[in-house]
Write a structure and sequence with these properties.
The chain is an alpha/beta fold and 322 residues long. The chain folds into 2 domains: 2-187, Rossmann fold (3-Layer(aba) Sandwich), CATH 3.40.50; 206-318, 3-Layer(aba) Sandwich (Rossmann fold), CATH 3.40.50. The protein has 9 helices and 16 strands. Strand 6 (107-110), helix 4 and strand 7 form a beta-alpha-beta unit. It is elongated.
Length: 322
């Protein structure tokens, strides 16, 4: 019989309306979920890590969670881990675990878009599918994944694309890894080679800036002056910025502030053939780091982890490619 550890962190899946507070609040515990789930063929071990909404979760908390998951998966009696998490920051926590947890055993995130107090509550269905996926041999070596609405996605590619829909997550540009169809787990494709960064601490002073048409450099200047260890910039297209951003990027690097470029587009890599000022070649020439195929929030997570783990600039640069 498979033994799956289910770690609860809070989120809408564990929320129901209380008698005092006007809105729904986190309140469901492991025993509550156990009573709602079929238990044939699996031994479920519930553990409460936290009980907060996804919007309250932090990167430091995510790294602590990663260390706990790594410890659980080192136990030969545990075949996989399911993590219940609020949707708001699920993609960031899942990606951090994908970067830092080395075990080949399944790590499956899920949650709910509606609270247990709502009509159409999706929590139990998602949790049952996550447990089924964590039990499956096909889920080995996928890295951290997330499942909503029976589709599961690689943490590296996962993005929340809708604020209300029950099918709120997608993998723009690549599609889901597969589906859970009743008792069957169907893997349509597997993720590219996983990157692992051994990390005991992370750097919290990392900012994310999204470039918009005609945007000035106030946010970047504030980040540098406030002593940010790193800045992630969501640039246009394949990695382009207005020309007036270049002097401040140079200044940031001279102050040893790591600058990482990603695209504000939902999918696609970095690089172009343009020769005008501010295009990709200028950022490459200045020595910026590039977060290929990562959204801004995930690029920030990667930089936080990399800055915390890197022993020198060369090692840091090695985790980012152009």
């Amino acid at each position: 019989m498979k033994r799956i550890a289910v770690i609860t962190t809070g989120g809408a899946i564990g929320v129901r309306r209380g008698p005092i507070v006007g809105g729904a609040m986190p309140s469901l515990k492991g025993d509550d979920f156990l009573a709602m789930l079929p238990r044939s063929g699996v031994d479920l071990v519930f553990e409460e890590f936290a009980n907060v909404p996804g919007s309250h979760f932090t990167a430091v908390g995510a790294l602590d969670l990663a260390h706990r998951v790594e410890s659980l998966l080192s136990n030969p009696d545990i075949d996989g881990v399911v993590i219940i998490h609020g949707p708001d920051t699920l993609e960031e926590t899942a990606y951090l675990l994908s970067l830092t947890v080395r075990s080949p055993k399944p790590v499956v995130f899920t949650g709910a878009m509606r609270s247990a107090a709502s009509v159409g509550y999706d929590g139990v269905v998602n949790l049952a599918s996550a447990i089924r996926l964590a039990m499956a041999p096909e889920a080995q070596d996928l890295g951290a994944v997330a499942i909503f609405g029976d589709e599961f996605h690689a943490a590296d590619e996962l993005q929340q694309v809708h604020s209300q829909s029950l099918v709120a997550f997608a993998s723009p540009g690549s599609g889901p890894l597969g589906r859970v169809e009743g008792e069957r787990v169907v893997v349509r494709h597997r993720p590219f080679a996983r990157q692992h960064i051994a990390c005991q601490r992370l750097e919290e002073m990392v900012d994310l800036i999204r470039v918009t048409q005609g945007a000035d450099v106030r946010q970047l200047r504030h980040s540098i002056e406030d002593g940010a260890a790193g800045v992630v910039i969501e640039a246009f297209g394949g990695g382009r910025l207005p020309p007036w951003w270049l002097p401040l990027i140079t200044d940031a690097m001279q102050r040893r502030t790591a600058v990482v470029i990603t695209t504000r587009c939902m999918s696609g890599g970095l690089g172009d053939e343009f020769g005008y000022v501010g295009a990709f070649h200028d950022l490459q020439r200045l020595g910026a780091l590039f977060a290929q195929q990562l959204s801004g929030p995930k690029a920030r997570i990667k930089l936080m982890v990399a800055l915390g783990a890197a022993r020198n600039t060369s090692e840091l640069r090695g985790w980012f490619t152009s």
